[in-house]
Amino acid sequence: MKKILFTCFLALLCLVGSEFTCWSQVVDSPPGNGLVDASSLHPGREEYSTPAQKGEENYTLIYGEIINPDSLGPLSLKITPYYISPRTTFLQEELLLDPINGEFYDGVVNPRTRKFDTRISLSDRPGYLSLFLGNRPLLEDYLVLPGDSIKLKLDLSKNAIIFAGKNQDFYEAQFALKRLDQRREFDSPRQLIIPETSSLLTRPGSREKIDYFRGKFGAELLILKPGKESLHYLIAQADQAEDILKPKLEILDFYQPKLSPKNWDLLRAEVYGNFYYSILSTFRKFHYPYVENKFSAKDRERYRQRLTELLTRVGNLEFDSQSKLISAAFLDLELERLILNALWKNRSFLELVQENHSGELADRLQAAYLSNYLASHTGQEEILLNYLSKTESSPWKDRIENLKRATIPGEPIEDAQLISMSGDTLNVSDLPNQPTLVYFYFSTCAHSASYFKNYLFPLYQELEAEGIKLIAISVDEDSDLWKERIFKYSDPSIPNFNLRGLSKERWKELYEITSFPRVMLLDRDSRILSFDIKPLGETQKELLQEFRKKFNDELSTKTNTSL
Description:
Layout: E1 4-7, E2 13-16, E3 58-67, E4 75-80, E5 93-97, E6 100-101, E7 114-122, E8 127-133, E9 136-144, E10 149-155, E11 160-165, H1 168-187, E12 190-193, H2 199-202, H3 206-213, E13 221-224, H4 228-239, H5 241-255, H6 261-294, H7 297-315, H8 321-326, H9 328-345, H10 349-356, H11 359-373, H12 380-389, H13 396-405, E14 417-420, E15 425-427, E16 436-441, H14 446-463, E17 469-474, H15 479-484, H16 486-489, E18 496-498, H17 501-510, E19 518-522, E20 528-530, H18 540-550
Parallel strand pairs: 3-10, 12-13, 16-17, 17-18
Antiparallel strand pairs: 1-2, 3-7, 4-5, 4-8, 6-7, 8-9, 10-11, 14-15, 14-18, 16-19, 19-20
């Protein structure tokens, strides 16, 4: 209902209307239609926008009104213009929103309502958007159209999220589909795959509790034995795909007349992709090792045949070529399908991509594969160079180039601004001209504390006299927390610095820092010799021996330069 203002003769103003988100080892070969422009037929329902000139950015305008009774944190947006992998932040952008009070004259009359507006930059195709209140996702991984204008109502006091704007049905359809996912997850039995000898089942009273709650209205636990029983249940889910997906397909049918053909097909790719990806990834990560190592040759062949039929069925799903270049769910699904084929055929993943796909789609799959699984390979430099030679289009080639820069040592470390304990600033380029271990951590990570005390600091104490220096760099945004916990996560006898803000985000993206601790080794000229020394050894003795063996040249000359 539109907001309508009436000015009354008695100088009274009245307002009518509504207020306003163990895999098996992979090696390479892996371990373990034409487009129809129907916009003229559907006024108000736009296809993907195209820049007026090459290189011009597509801005999407977002206006929102929020009622938040709890004030649980800042409001922020995360924009992913190109989905590649959940492991990477490549080309992602985060925006901090600053809602302000509305005014009577702009139509925001509820005093609890705050409003915000911003523009986000996309490419010439849809990307993904998430909206967070602190760490709490309000909208998670919504496809958003370039050049669109979106209105949002977020009434957290009533748990209401409403979309408006010229493509409101595209967003309402996604909201409905995501709600069905949540309903299915809530209404399905909680699966537990454990052997009958597990202590969870054999401890006194466990069986009685399971029997008592079985069949009652509410939550239910489904216990499956690992092996044939759990695998049969998984395959049965795939065989019932049309029945399981029927409610979501009915949503798509309802919204189809309201959406452009491209947008409808994109949501369809998300529906099928998410469902089949879940099944194939569950099989590869949890069932494949069991099948290969525990099943008889006859049973292995029988189940492989059933899964091969499923892969064929999945491979025959047809989607618009643009949907394949945009949909995160389709990309994840196609990765799983090709990886399983590569495993069974003992083939290279890259070879299978080149056989099954071409052009930008092949490039996208190659960049996604490396983003997910490069760290699991040996011979990473050779693999990266091989993939680069087969990848031509941006941003996928750019992504692999970034991986190369974060994987193959030898380049000088990127400069950044560090903050000392006294609050002074220091550039990385000001580090001493001697071999330096650079330890990255954050002050609530138990793994960081353990690794520093049990491995890294003892290593440094052994090598200090041979010219090795150690500095600690916290990535905490809270400087007080960092300083308070120096004794637990580092040591006051070594230089301690803090890296935060834009410098931290730049380094995290550039060097693929997605987990902590990370310990780089720099040479005398601040070139990166190792992106992480942790893989060198699992014991103090082994770490020291392997470090000396690999970096013997760096230990041969002492330097007395100090910070």
